[in-house]
Amino acid sequence: MKRANIFIIIFILFLVASCSQQDSKWKGSIKTEDGVTIVENPRIPLYEENIFNLEEDLIIGGSEGKDNYQFSEVSDIAVDSDENIYVLDSKESHIKVFDKKGNYLKTIGRKGQGPGEMQMLVYVQITSQNEIMIYDYMLQRLTFFSLDGGYLRQKNTAKTRDLFLPIKMDSNGNLIVFADFAPPPLGGKKLKIYDSNLELLTIVAKEERGMRGVIDIGKPELYCNVSPNDNIIVGNSREYVLQIFNQKGDLIKKISKEHNFIKITAEDKKTYKKKYAEPIERGMKINFRSHFPAFSEISIDDEGRIFVKTYQRIKGKDSVFYFDVFESGGKYTAKIPVKANLNRNSVWKKNKLYTIEEDKEGYQVVKRYKVNWNY
Predict the structure, then answer these.
(1) CATH 2.40.50.140: does it fit domain 34-373?
(2) For 188, how many CA atoms within 13 A lie in the half-sphere containing its CB?
(3) Could you read off the pLDDT of 140-177 as tens digits, one per residue?
(4) How do the domains of the chain map onto residue ranges?
(5) Would you give the distance in Å from CA 125 to the centre of its chain?
(6) Which of 36, 169, 184, 220 has the highest CB neighbour number within 10 Å of its CB?
(7) Is 333 helix (H, G, I), strand (E, B) or coil?
(8) How many CB atoms lie within 10 A of CB 65?
């Protein structure tokens, strides 16, 4: 019995030593200032090797197939606990639902202005109450359906006096939104939290307006996403700092990383001039700053990992960007190239990633990837 106890103690000490050695590789620091946790990360991640892999295992949509499998203009997607996929088609003003094998199940909603009818859909979410919530930008209202497609109720958002883009309705029924106060390309938006009665709770952050009539390449922007535990992750890309707020809008954590800004090259300028050729011909000006901002997207998986899209690309593959990955506590763990269209509209569910992309012919498709971690 004593010998068995000795072996158990040795095994526990081995595990502790192994964890300590792994954690000692991280060269950052964690401290607390005025009740806020400050996580400062080095330039080098904890894991330098490629520890992340995506395996494509489902495609819905494309140029061929029956009408139920075609999309006109996908603006958002959602996935429920049974892995059914909800595809929001803004142009057709409805939601198409598919099972986890990609089989068409039903269509919810139709074009119109009455109860349960829609005009310009920009957002869909499966709420914590297992309801489908959509936001109609044109009608300025939230509409709720049951998972089987039955109309439940709607809320008029015009009382907020904001045209906004929802980011998430949290488990308390609070609505986190980007409220625009200037049209593109002038830009500028506020990050607001409304309660379940659409009364303003707080303004978390704001982005300043840009130059009127100018396409400003390299202008820092405000990005946001919400974690599975309803913390709000916010970053203004003028610097590499992520701020974490709780449901009340109180700052609880800051995550920073050492960063070198990437220069906007002559080749980049050619690409952007080609991309915006039409508005430039109509008289708009284009301005290039010297460097790109610190990052361009924030995504969060269902385990709380934070994915920050950088402007660093794989040479020769301009569509493949590197993402910095932070574990839920804020430590910088990996730098990974991601070919998939990973952004705020992407959905992480049960170790799978769902994205909105285009096929080789330019038709919109919804893709699902199996996610593999090698650590």
Answers:
(1) no
(2) 9
(3) 999 999 999 999 999 999 999 888 899 999 999 999 99
(4) 34-373
(5) 13
(6) 169
(7) strand
(8) 11
Residue whose tokens read 């009364």: 199
Which tokens go with 228?
Answer: 């599975």
Name the CA radius of gyration of the chain, rounded. 22
Rounded Cα–Cα distance for residues 224 and 205 (Å): 10
Please report, as a single letter, which amino acid is at residue 20.
Answer: S
Q: Residue 239 to residues 73, 187, 217: CA-CA distances in angstroms?
A: 34, 18, 16
- For the chain, give percent helix, strand, coil, nearest 5: 10, 45, 40
Is the pTM higher than 0.85? The answer reads: yes
Of 160, 90, 178, 169, the residue nearest 132 (C-alpha) = 169
Residues 204 and 165 sit within 8 Å (Cβ to Cβ):
no
Regions of the chain with pLDDT less than 70: 1-24, 181-187
Spatial separation of the C-alpha atoms in residues 139 and 302, rounded to whole Å: 31
**What is the helix (H) or strand (E) element at residue 253, kind and residue range?**
strand 251-257
CA distance 232 to 229: 9
What's the distance, CA 221 to chain centroid? 14
Coil, strand or helix at 149: coil
Is residue 147 packed enough to be buried (19+ CB in 10 Å), middle (13-18) or exposed (0-12)? middle
pLDDT value for 5: 52
Q: Is 198 exposed, middle or buried (0-12, 13-18, 19+ CB in 10 A)?
A: middle
Residues 170 and 230 sit within 8 Å (Cβ to Cβ) = yes
User: In what side-by-side order are the strands of the sheet with 141-146?
Assistant: 121-126, 131-136, 141-146, 151-156
C-alpha span between 341 and 62 (Å, rounded) = 16
Tell me how far apart the alpha carbons of residues 202 and 190 are, in angstroms, rounded to a whole number: 10
**Tally of residues, the chain:** 375
- Please check whether residue 261 is in contact with residue 291, taking contact to mean a CB–CB distance below 8 angstroms: yes
Residue with tokens 């590789």: 25
Tokens at residue 352, please?
Answer: 């799978």
The distance of Cα 117 from the centroid of its chain, to the nearest Å, equals: 27
